[in-house]
Task: structure prediction
Amino acid sequence: MTRSGKVDIGILLLLADQEFVRELREQTAAQGFDDQGRSDGFVFRTLDDGPTTISGLAERLDITKQGAGQIVDDMERRGYVERRPDPTDARARLLHLTDRGQAALAAARKFHQSYERRLRRKFGDEAIDSLRGVLAGMAGEAQVSTPHFRALMF
Result:
């Protein structure tokens, strides 16, 4: 709390994010996706645009190739991602979402849409539109324009 007795806005943002993630994990777990990692959503959305290499994934997510490789190895082990030969380059392997990965992404998207509808019913369209504007302004145009952020878009 601040001296005025109000909870710090940064704390409120953090708590709201934690609650959102908790509900997302609860809902997707109920649909059989109880083994998702923190980075899975970023990879799901990136690969939903089409197959890419480990290097391409690393670039899109702004992480190292080694980091991307570790994430993919784990997701492959859990059945969300698979590697297939690149039909245009025999040396390369392309990452694809499996059927399980596609289903997990669909479940997450359904939750996101449902969550926003629930917020709109509770607080009204004007409040949620304002919230979107505030959050976008806080993130900044430069941040919203990055490949990392674009990978999060529906």
